[in-house]
Amino acid sequence: MIDKYKATLLALALAVHPAASAQEGRIWLPEVFRTSAAQAQEIPIGYASTASPQRTVVYSLGPLWYDNRWSPYVEAQFHVGVTKPCAGAVRLGYYIVRANSPQGTAGLYLSRYAVIDLPATPTDRPSHHAISQLAGHMAQPGELEIKNAHYNVVMFADSYDRACVGATLQIKGKQTHEHAGELTVANR
Questions:
Q1: CATH number, domain with residue 49
Q2: Is the pTM of this model over 0.85?
Q3: Res 58: pLDDT
């Protein structure tokens, strides 16, 4: 009985769904999109008194096209491992943004940027850290379709410790024994 009900609802949904023009391509139903391919393998550590740290896109997913008439809520989440190679304290910032290109660091911010402190260690032995974030947004009024959207994970790092300035945080996941990070975007 339930399968027949689901089939009837799907047939009804497809019947009322507007047809996409040949110019637009197809309009996707709600889906989940995922990537584990890191766009950058390093995050440069700048000096903390600099006005704006160098922002690096770590993961990018797109271009995506989806129809907000089916579901106006988009959820994005990521997790990533980073290695700090120096003994000093490092401030690491990150956020998720919907941009117009895979290199975009500004656009529709799905969340405010978060900042964590990677604490100083007594030696120059590398320390490993796991970072994750969940964010979401509702479609703007009148925003029925999203076209050519790139969801980007942007990270930046800085330090007052001269031993760390100029070094880079390493994105983990290149070797087979390491857990790779990922970015997931779902139109729910």
A1: 2.60.120.660
A2: no
A3: 93
